[in-house]
Amino acid sequence: MSLIRRQFLTRAAVAGTVLGAPVIANAQSARFNWKMTSAYGKGSPFYMDGPGSATDLAKRIREMSDGRLNIQVFGAGELIPAFEGFDAVRAGTVEMNHANAYFWTGKTAAAQYFTAVPFGMNFQGMNGWFYDGGGIDLWNEVYAPFGMVAMPCGNTGVQMTGWFKKEIKSSADLKGLKMRIPGLAGRVYAALGVDVKLLPGGEIFPALERGVIDAAEFVGPFQDRKLGLHKAAKYLYTTGWHESATVSELLINKAAWDKLPKDLQAVVENAAAACNVISEAWCQRNNAEAMDDLVKNQGVIAKPLPDEVLKKLREVTNQVLAEAVAKDAMTKKVHDSYMAYKKKYDAWAGYSEGPYHNKILTA
To answer: Averaged over 196-224, what is the pLDDT?
Structure first.
């Protein structure tokens, strides 16, 4: 190699290093200020306040990114109405929304599977499908036409069937009942003659107290007690058939997401995964304490639904799912993935979780 050529290459390499340095530095020093809305009111336990909540998620992201990604959190009604997060993120009005995917089933029926499926998987099974079974990839495939990405960022574990003013003795008692219930479970109840209502959390108690509704499902003992639902209805059915593990969704505008450096994307993904686990742990302790108080001190009658009612609910659920799958190819793709994973998980749980609950706890 000639001396002139060696000098040219050496100078070019040095110049490239010098010129490249500011580019790397700029990427690492760039700061982003985002807005995140929620379907839940400011201060709502689990969703907006406490370990694993929306505000906790924003705090973790800020600290993990050393302040490079700051997220301002807005409760329902502060910036947009409770159930308009999907449209706000899609339009780029806000970069993020913290809610549950089944609120968007009117946009795409497949969204239901990323929150909870009646008679579906528990917390362990859902996480297995998400993180190791392709669930998150499917989630993003569903949202791709809308220009959004999503990931799990919380889980309530098993939810309660809900609060009823009158005892439910048979499926016939459901007919004509006015009930607050979201998602696919609402369609199942509607098929059995229930007048289904979709109300934000803050509107449930006054509606139940005034008789606008006869029954209501929200989350679990702690959050329900916080809303005062036990003061308006005394029958708490505990079966949890409709939401055996309810996932919180972090919804993100895809264009905004693509502008984040890879390390900040990793920060968001890992903070969301942490909140997914931490929030469920928080629910276990607080629900245990709240249920004990509700039964012992608040006069609440807690019991599972009658077997006949549960059987009927399962039959209708299968019909509703079959109808949804037949109408939409993407819903079928998600359904098939979910159910295939569930089949494998259920078989394993028969050896692991099953004996624990059926043998060890009752020994």
So the answer is: 95
pLDDT digits (tens, 9 = 90+) for 231-282: 999 999 999 999 999 999 999 999 999 999 999 999 999 999 999 999 999 9
What is the number of helices (H) and of strands (E) in the chain? 13, 11
Quote the CA–CA distance of 335 and 186 in Å, as a whole number: 18
Query: 297: phi > 0 → left, psi -120 to 50 → alpha, else beta; which?
Result: alpha
12's CB contacts (< 8 A; 6+ apart) are: none
First to last CA, the chain: 83
Q: Is 248 helix (H, G, I), strand (E, B) or coil?
A: strand
Kindly compute the dihedral angle of the four CA atoms of residues 153, 125, 182, 214, in this order, to the nearest 10 degrees: -120
Residue 8: is it exposed, middle or buried by C-beta count within 10 angstroms (0-12/13-18/19+)?
exposed
Q: Which residue has the tokens 């190699």?
A: 1
Please tell me the number of Cα atoms within 13 Å of 297 on its side-chain side. Answer: 6
Backbone angles phi, psi at 183, to 5 degrees: 70, -160
Task: Give this prediction's pTM.
Answer: 0.89
